[in-house]
């Protein structure tokens, strides 16, 4: 089982980014979408990205031409997959759309082709059943933008062959990324299991403690060493992504997050964050604007419940052998930019205070009941 030729289905932000990093590693890539206008736009973005790398002396002009020519944009699905070894599906997060795509693939691809879905939330085992060969199906969750983000979560389904896991892990290494294996197909995988519930918890904290968004975000940034505030990060990620991930995660695991209605309101109002000019915050420029967060604002709030919710989900992942503590910290460092491990944050804020806060909240809402690992935390 050797991967030489790759097909990427979907030429959006994730699709064309995955195509680019694969082509940069020397793979021949077919980039497929349903309309030429989508492909033209994607290839322009790839050309722009390669030009930037040339200007920064990270690649030569000759390299840029070779990489660009390693990618063949195509509409015809049969042509895109006839000689492929690996199909990376990066179509929108809609189960029915993915069902349609895999149904078409079942009719035309050879039996030994590996299917890899770039889904961030949909269950891999469920998706694998849409194909004729679930043993050849795996999740490869890249992070946005794929050209810059080093983390790739590798998620085997219930029936995934170990050889496929090994081959995909080698592939991720070959494109200069860090694979972290999510050993069980759980809701949210690793990073989203931590991140998505925190967006909801930040909103509950606002309501409960009567503080502003920028105060909470300042506390998260300066007291917890996050690269940016929770609301700021949600706006950067996109409230459409947050909403869809929240829905899918809670659909499959009622204990993973405590839904706050504000996420759905923003989504339905098309207030999706930076991409629409307004989400939790307002943005006036096309380039990404940083929110004014300060240490003075941070001093006004103790984000105990935010750390508690993160620690509860982190403990659940380790306790259920979804990943090791080392892999958890690596994934959160590379995927969320966390400079401090979750349990080190508990120590920083005081284990007893975090535990007491969770117990107090747990009296009103079972969701907050502390994990046994935290109850025994030193």
From TrEMBL:
Q: Which Pfam families match?
A: 3HCDH (PF00725), 3HCDH_N (PF02737)
InterPro entries xref list: 3-OHacyl-CoA_DH_NAD-bd (IPR006176), 3HC_DH_C (IPR006108), 6-PGluconate_DH-like_C_sf (IPR008927), 6PGD_dom2 (IPR013328), NAD(P)-bd_dom_sf (IPR036291)
Its keywords, alphabetically, are: Oxidoreductase
Is Cell cycle one of the keywords? no
**Gene3D superfamilies in the record:** N-(1-d-carboxylethyl)-l-norvaline Dehydrogenase, domain 2 (1.10.1040.10), NAD(P)-binding Rossmann-like Domain (3.40.50.720)
Q: Give GO terms: molecular function aspect only.
A: 3-hydroxybutyryl-CoA dehydrogenase activity; NAD+ binding
Q: Which residues form the 3-hydroxyacyl-CoA dehydrogenase C-terminal domain?
A: 188-283
Instruction: Show the stretches that span the lipid bilayer.
Output: none
Its BP terms in the Gene Ontology are: fatty acid metabolic process
Q: Where is the 3-hydroxyacyl-CoA dehydrogenase NAD binding domain?
A: 5-185
The EC class name is oxidoreductase
The EC code for this enzyme is: 1.1.1.157
PANTHER family the UniProt entry points to: 3-HYDROXYACYL-COA DEHYDROGENASE FAMILY PROTEIN (PTHR48075), 3-HYDROXYBUTYRYL-COA DEHYDROGENASE (PTHR48075:SF5)
Instruction: Specify the protein name.
Output: Putative 3-hydroxybutyryl-CoA dehydrogenase
Q: Which organism is it from?
A: Candidatus Nitrosocosmicus franklandianus
Q: What is the lineage of its organism?
A: Archaea, Nitrososphaerota, Nitrososphaeria, Nitrososphaerales, Nitrososphaeraceae
Question: What is the gene called?
Answer: mmgB
């Amino acid at each position: 089982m050797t991967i030489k030729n790759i097909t990427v289905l979907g030429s959006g932000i994730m699709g064309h980014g995955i195509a680019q990093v694969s082509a940069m590693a020397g793979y021949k890539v077919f980039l497929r979408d349903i309309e030429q206008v989508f492909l033209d736009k994607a290839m322009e973005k790839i050309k722009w990205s390669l030009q930037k790398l040339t200007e920064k002396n990270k690649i030569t002009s000759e390299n840029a031409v070779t990489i660009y020519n390693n990618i063949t944009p195509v509409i015809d699905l049969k042509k895109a997959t006839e000689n492929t070894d690996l199909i990376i599906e990066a179509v929108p997060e809609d189960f029915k759309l993915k069902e349609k795509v895999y149904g078409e693939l079942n009719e035309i691809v050879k039996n030994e082709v590996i299917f890899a879905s770039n889904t961030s939330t949909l269950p891999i085992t469920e998706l694998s059943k849409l194909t004729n060969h679930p043993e050849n199906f795996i999740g490869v969750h890249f992070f946005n933008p794929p050209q810059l983000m080093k983390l790739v979560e590798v998620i085997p389904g219930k029936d995934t062959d170990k050889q496929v896991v090994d081959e995909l892990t080698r592939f991720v290494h070959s494109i200069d990324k860090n694979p972290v294996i999510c050993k069980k197909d759980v809701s949210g995988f690793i990073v989203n299991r931590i991140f998505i519930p925190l967006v909801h918890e930040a909103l509950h904290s606002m309501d409960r403690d009567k503080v502003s968004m920028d105060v909470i975000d300042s506390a998260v940034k300066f007291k917890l060493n996050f690269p940016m505030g929770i609301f700021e990060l949600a706006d950067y990620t996109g409230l459409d992504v947050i909403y869809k991930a929240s829905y899918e995660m809670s659909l499959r695991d009622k204990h993973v997050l405590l839904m706050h209605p504000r996420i759905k309101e923003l989504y339905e109002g098309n207030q999706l964050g930076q991409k629409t000019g307004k989400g939790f915050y307002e943005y006036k420029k096309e380039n990404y604007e940083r929110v004014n967060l300060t240490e003075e604002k941070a001093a006004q709030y103790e984000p105990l419940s935010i750390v508690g919710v993160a620690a509860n989900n982190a403990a659940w992942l380790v306790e259920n052998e979804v990943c090791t503590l080392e892999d958890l910290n690596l994934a959160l460092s590379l995927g969320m930019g966390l400079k401090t491990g979750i349990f080190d944050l508990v120590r920083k804020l005081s284990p007893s205070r975090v535990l007491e806060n969770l117990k107090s909240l747990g009296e009103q809402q079972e969701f907050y009941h502390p994990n046994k690992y935290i109850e025994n935390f030193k």
